[in-house]
């Protein structure tokens, strides 16, 4: 019987458990496959640390946030890792191929493993929705719902105190969460990594809102930069994939707005609230479809492919199409929203 190992790698994301369940149900019911989960991402693959994933293990998990098999930003080429060790682990555990569920960094690592002879396929995951080759990733919809509710809530407290409110949301390379939540909740300015804006411009928007007797609401993505900044603000060091840990631009922006406009301004960083908790119905559905499709993919032995959403169809794309080129907010789309800021 064909046996596969699933791992979830990188930041967690609402809908991961739906992927795991969808894969196991499709695999066991339709293809007669068996599954194990590698614990904590590539760490479990490198050290052969697995848990059995049968039908009972995945009962009722679609509605749960996080991932039942754990995740990490541990790379497969860390000391102790590498293709020879991983081939040995797969042979010892009788595993035919690896299903890697992750974002850009995970797909890049999977692509390298493929080149080094490891049979591996992918499922795209990120709340940031910035993975190329798929129209949407699961987790994004939940994050947008959480961020939209946060903007709605901040607007009522901002209105009560006649304050300017700033909400910082996640979005490292792409401002999708900021755009969708900001537009949905009627923010007066949305600041995204793709388009630097000057403080003068932001203050102009804020003042024009105040002139109409309203309380300004600004949504800023963590990766936003002012024109003079070479890279996104980071003061927390590097993550496990050696990327700067972002977060804090909202706290920099708020006092600047207050200083330049004289409007009392407060900042809130939404942070991990966007990643945790119950996945939306949309994310559970997409996760389940991705899971079923990846079971079909390994049944066909199509190594080096990733499942993706194109329109309403689930398709297969090579890893190479997904990595190294983030899917950013098109500038026309941003300019359209920007036309009614203020
Ligand atoms: O990649 C998704 C993401 O949510 C980014 O927006 C954010 O920069 C990053 O994860 C933070 O993740 P962690 O602190 O878990 O490394």
Describe the structure.
The structure is a single chain. Helices cover 39% and strands 16% of the residues. The protein is of the alpha/beta class and 342 residues long. It folds into two domains: 3-138 and 279-322, Rossmann fold, CATH 3.40.50; 143-275, Rossmann fold (3-Layer(aba) Sandwich). The strands form three sheets. It has a five-stranded mixed beta sheet, sandwiched between helices. Strands 7-8-6-9 form a four-stranded parallel beta sheet, sandwiched between helices. Strands 10-11 form a two-stranded antiparallel ribbon. Strand 1, helix 1 and strand 2 form a beta-alpha-beta unit. Helix 7 (199-211) packs across helix 8 (249-261). The N and C termini lie far apart (61 Å). The site of 6-O-phosphono-beta-D-fructofuranose has 13 residues, from loops.
Which CATH architecture of the largest domain is right?
3-Layer(aba) Sandwich
How confident overall, as mean pLDDT?
97
The CATH class name of the largest domain reads Alpha Beta
* Global geometry: elongated
Could you give the order of the helices and strands?
EHEHEHEHEHEHEHEHEHEEHH
Count the domains: 2
CATH topology of the largest domain: Rossmann fold
The major β-sheet equals: 5 strands, mixed
Strand content: 15-25%
Cofactors and ligands: 6-O-phosphono-beta-D-fructofuranose
Share in helix? 25-40%
So how many helices?
A: 11
Going by helix content, strand content and strand pairing, the class is: alpha/beta
Total count of strands: 11
Ends apart, CA distance between termini:
61 Å
Gyration radius from CA atoms, angstroms: 21 Å
Strand order of the largest sheet: 3-2-1-4-5
Poorly predicted residue ranges = none
